[in-house]
Structures are given as C-alpha cells and as structure tokens.
Design a protein that fits this description.
Radius of gyration: 22 Å
Oligomer: single chain
Strand content: 5-15%
Order of helices and strands: HEEHH
Number of strands: 2
Helix content: over 70%
Largest sheet: 2 strands, antiparallel
Shape: globular
Length: 86
C-alpha cells in the first residue's frame, strides 16, 4: 500500500512539474510575441504590446462612457489607435 502511495505521489509530482514547465515556456513565447515590432517611427519601435495597450485603453474609455461598438467601429478604433501611436 505504501509503495503505491509513493508511486502515485511521484507520478503526480512529475505531471505537475511538466505542466509548470509547459506554462512557463508558453509564457516566454507570449512575451516574445508581444514584443514583436509592428512598426518603427524615427527609429523608435512600436510593439504589438504597445498597440494592444492603445486599443484597450480607448476601448475601456468608450465602454465606461456607455458606448457599445460594432465590428466596423472596432476596426476604426484600431486604425485610430495605430495612427495615434505613430
């Protein structure tokens, strides 16, 4: 009985350790993706993270004022946010 408990504990430990490594590697890839340069203005890089921040800031501002955007308005918001970053 004790051997089964130790074996089961070892298997659970290995699974949790493997899952933690997978999550960590995925996180590194997401960080790398967010730091991808999408434009450059006068030698200054604009990253995907900058763009997402600009869009979400404007979206939150409009949402808090009661605005509900359709797909076309969201597309325009993204264009305007990108232009603002440039």
């Amino acid at each position: 009985m004790k051997a089964k408990h130790v074996t089961l504990s070892a298997i659970i430990f290995i699974l949790i350790t493997g899952l933690a490594c997978t999550v960590s590697l995925g996180s590194d890839k997401r960080k790398k993706d967010l730091n991808t340069k999408i434009a450059s203005v006068n030698g200054v890089a604009i990253t995907k993270k900058d763009f997402i921040w600009a869009v979400s800031s404007q979206d939150q501002r409009l949402t808090s004022s009661g605005k509900v955007m359709d797909r076309d308005e969201m597309a325009q918001l993204k264009k305007d946010s990108f232009s603002g970053l440039i």
